[in-house]
Amino acid sequence: MQSDSTGIWYFECQAAELESYLLSLQRRSVIYPDECEFLIQHLNELQTTSDQNTHGVAPLCHRCVTLIQKDDLVEIIVNREHEKIDHVTQLPLRVSLLRQIEIWYQKRPNAITGICLAELDGFSNINDTVGHATGDLILFEIARRLEKYKNHEFKLVRLHGDEFALAVTNMGSHEEIWDVSKWIGDQFDAPFNTQKGAVFLTPSIGMSLNINTNGEPVSLLECAYIALNHAKGDPLAREKLFNPQQEKNLTRQVLLESQLNQALDDETDLEIWYQPKQTLDNMQISGMEALIRWRHPVDGLISPGEFIPLAERTGLICEVTDFVVKQVAKDLPVLRKQGFNGKVSINISANDFLRPNLVQAMLDLIAESDITTADIELEITEGAFISDFNHCILLLNSLKEAGFALSIDDFGTGYSSLSYLTKLPVDTVKIDMSFVRELAASTQARKIYKGMIDICKALDFNVLAEGVDHDDQRTVLKSIGCDSIQGYLLSKPLGLEKLLDYLSSQD
Ligand code: C2E
Ligand code: CA
Ligand code: CA
Fold this sequence. Notes:
Elements: E1 2-3, E2 8-13, H1 16-27, H2 33-48, H3 58-62, E3 66-70, E4 73-79, H4 94-107, E5 112-120, H5 123-130, H6 132-146, E6 153-158, E7 163-171, H7 176-186, E8 192-194, E9 197-199, E10 203-209, H8 217-233, E11 239-241, H9 244-266, E12 270-279, E13 285-296, E14 300-302, H10 304-314, H11 317-337, E15 343-348, H12 358-367, E16 376-381, H13 389-401, E17 405-411, H14 418-423, E18 428-431, H15 443-458, E19 462-465, H16 471-479, E20 484-486, H17 496-506
Bound molecules: ligand C2E and calcium ion (2 copies).
């Protein structure tokens, strides 16, 4: 036995009986536990008869890479860098994938190489339902199905969790990566039979090709991850091929996330603007909605339409909410001095509803200030209710008991059902601005709007129309019984200084 400087170990043995095993091992990328035992036993025997019996054979449990037959000698080369395999699936890991791609790149720089990165949809639910042990067996079975691939030279690895990567090289054209992806999808057609019943699974697949990457194996993998993220976000196309534009978007998102985190920590560059609401019976300014603005040091003002969804995806939204509450607590006493006596409303996101201590957190935030819960209305979109409706009702009741007013935001856009409306302890329904657009021109639109108002009134809710930007819309809304309005007709959202000017001009 000898070793070279790169850590490759050579075993020379006369075990002709091992040959067929070893040849079959060479054709696939997995060694099963019983095969390992067989190999270890025989190689141990061979080693004890060897003069230089100084190295263990443990690496062989993991990987036999190359086999060369010389006369009746079998030489097995075990690369120690490939030692690690995943015990659940018996597949090699990320490092082996990158190593293999590197070898391909060196051997055939012009070959078309690609990766299909498959992640199972909803696998954590499966684990929760059938248990982790059965989940592991399913992963093992997936590995067995995927290692049957044979259209091109390939490397199959488990990355982590429910992610598998199948890298292929020597494809005839770039389009063939789609065939590989389709083949992977086909391996999930048959259910996985477990003791707890048949389990059906589907993968989302991200693909990348070496033409789009910078020549580093890791870049091929990263691009497949970017494509996978896009595939997961698209319910209609669960397989996506990487394109460079996706990378640009992702880079911006990653950068914005860390900058937003910083801005929230430092409480810099974030501002609260306010948009007035008007009651239609007396035309008075009756409330304000607090809307956040991010004055980015390089990109200027970034719309909440861009960074709020990002904050929701990354969990930063709860810190955003806290920031808004604190800032409103500072600004409201200033507005009171100007004669404003309505409530300020604050947008609460679906993620806030998952906070175990939302009510207490809100109370703590205003505890040190000069305002009370009666000064605040919380706006909640319908989307916040879909996950656990009963939990949401309890939470809304607690918020109400604590003294906050509550409103449903963007009503009519999502999950509206009359039966759920009746159960909500809210004060106001804000009808989404999409319904106001056609109001002045279309009798049909007017009938729909009036129907919505009538239902809300029958259930004792106040009704506010969002997005009112023309006087004729306000006239119609008043005539069909709407209580109040908000929109550019009154004012766009204003920073505190401009808002104070606006309020004094209303006097
Ligand atoms: P939203 O809660 O529905 O807020 C109303 C949005 O419509 C605001 O956009 C407002 O400027 C805009 N708007 C008001 N009147 C009109 C009008 O007459 N015409 C048109 N075209 N637009 C009008 P903004 O400030 O860009 O906010 C967009 C969304 O971002 C908000 O929708 C809300 O979902 C979210 N958002 C803003 N600030 C916060 C915040 O502090 N916390 C949370 N969780 N979300 C926020
Ligand atoms: Ca709102
Ligand atoms: Ca709204």
